[in-house]
Amino acid sequence: MDPFTPPADSSLWCKNFLLGAATASYQIEGAVNEDGRLPSIWDTFSAVPGKVLAGDTGAVACDHYHRWEADIEMLAGLGLEGYRLSIAWPRVMDAAGAPNRKGLDFYKRLLNRLKEKGITTFVTLYHWDLPQHLEDRGGWLNRETAYRFADYVDLMGRELAGTVDAWATLNEPWCSAYLGYGNGHHAPGLANQRFATQAMHHLLLAHGLAMPVLRANDPASQKGIVANIGRGTPNSDSAADRRAAHRFEVQHNAWILDPLLKGTYPQDLFELWPGTEPLVLDGDMRIIASPLDFLGINYYFRTNVASDGAQGFRDVPLEGVERTQMGWEVYPDGLRDLLIGFKDTYENLPPIYITENGMASDDEVIDGRVDDPQRISFLKRHLAAVDGAIKAGVDIRGYFLWSLMDNFEWAFGYERRFGVVHVDYSTQKRTVKRSAELVAKFLKERRERG
Ligand code: FCB
């Protein structure tokens, strides 16, 4: 048995369990000034000195805009059954809201090719590259942006219907709202807690407005949203630390999942951040709680927390635990425990896809090969956690590796390598890592079993 292949009793052997890989437009495409693409908030943000490690930007990235055919060959060659990609809003619409044909054609060609290859397509409509002209009018702080998003989604639904198996409206609204408007680590780089909750409300409203539009324009597809989730564990058994861990999870998980699945914001959130209640208009929560066909879950690590002596929590990094190149703790149980917890908390929990999971390591090509043993073990253990959740009754239908290839890791630039395929940024050469070879080997075995 190799170090990846799941045990014989794993649900992963079921061929209905979709195994794929994920990417996002700004992280891989490059070609930021081509064919009428408009600037996005990430072009602006990454041009500001000090915002991104080493001054990196997505201007070239993996040059996927030009190399997409070879990249799809590579994906198909690995036997991956699903591909989660995102559409760059500033590529497909001009500032007046008219379609940009050249940008649209790029995604049509890409999606048609994926269909020809028999690959299941998951398309994210917003993976953080907001058109800069909308940010200039307030971005996600402006309610109007939610309506502009619905217009964009309307166009995408009409143009791309039939080539998309599953649509996700937003990727990780927590990151857009909190990192973008709350602490400023991501574009557009604003730092105000009150902004974060208001931006979140408009993001969720955008999602809710987009759902019926997608249902009307592309009835046969699945529609949902992708949320990142965080595990918070208490540093001690004290009531204060347990409460801190609870607050951590409210801030990371319930802030998004409660409005989507219960139609309310968790009140604990506003005890943590007093005075930050967003402006909610009549009917908004009903729009936001539009039924989902699936929920995408992105999971990476856990955070060990203690009480901050007041209403909040502080991180208490554990010593002697395994960490990745990001410094994130490897903690597969967090994924299983959160999924089981959601099943118990939300009676209408939709079917789940793990839309991202993976890790960064400082991978190097040596004699034409990339050995990434930590990733192999990481993936094996996280897939075992998924299997554990399935066996406990959670309806999980698939898993996407983050990421197909090394790419622009936001504020960390190109230093952090999350791919199962290595990218040499000076030559754009792709080298399949050992982890990808083993995933491919497993998928081949699974197909042969029929
Ligand atoms: C997630 C993002 C994704 C990638 C991974 C590492 O938060 O959705 O684009 O950067 O983290």
TrEMBL record:
<feature type="binding site">
    <location>
        <position position="300"/>
    </location>
    <ligand>
        <name>substrate</name>
    </ligand>
</feature>
<feature type="binding site">
    <location>
        <position position="171"/>
    </location>
    <ligand>
        <name>substrate</name>
    </ligand>
</feature>
<keyword id="KW-0119">Carbohydrate metabolism</keyword>
<dbReference type="GO" id="GO:0008422">
    <property type="term" value="F:beta-glucosidase activity"/>
</dbReference>
<dbReference type="InterPro" id="IPR017736">
    <property type="entry name" value="Glyco_hydro_1_beta-glucosidase"/>
</dbReference>
<feature type="active site" description="Proton donor">
    <location>
        <position position="172"/>
    </location>
</feature>
<dbReference type="InterPro" id="IPR017853">
    <property type="entry name" value="GH"/>
</dbReference>
<feature type="binding site">
    <location>
        <position position="402"/>
    </location>
    <ligand>
        <name>substrate</name>
    </ligand>
</feature>
<dbReference type="GO" id="GO:0005829">
    <property type="term" value="C:cytosol"/>
</dbReference>
<feature type="binding site">
    <location>
        <begin position="409"/>
        <end position="410"/>
    </location>
    <ligand>
        <name>substrate</name>
    </ligand>
</feature>
<keyword id="KW-0136">Cellulose degradation</keyword>
<keyword id="KW-0378">Hydrolase</keyword>
<dbReference type="InterPro" id="IPR001360">
    <property type="entry name" value="Glyco_hydro_1"/>
</dbReference>
<feature type="binding site">
    <location>
        <position position="27"/>
    </location>
    <ligand>
        <name>substrate</name>
    </ligand>
</feature>
<dbReference type="GO" id="GO:0030245">
    <property type="term" value="P:cellulose catabolic process"/>
</dbReference>
<dbReference type="Pfam" id="PF00232">
    <property type="entry name" value="Glyco_hydro_1"/>
</dbReference>
<dbReference type="InterPro" id="IPR018120">
    <property type="entry name" value="Glyco_hydro_1_AS"/>
</dbReference>
<protein>
    <recommendedName>
        <fullName>Beta-glucosidase</fullName>
        <ecNumber>3.2.1.21</ecNumber>
    </recommendedName>
</protein>
<comment type="similarity">
    <text>Belongs to the glycosyl hydrolase 1 family.</text>
</comment>
<feature type="active site" description="Nucleophile">
    <location>
        <position position="356"/>
    </location>
</feature>
<feature type="binding site">
    <location>
        <position position="127"/>
    </location>
    <ligand>
        <name>substrate</name>
    </ligand>
</feature>
<keyword id="KW-0624">Polysaccharide degradation</keyword>
<keyword id="KW-0326">Glycosidase</keyword>
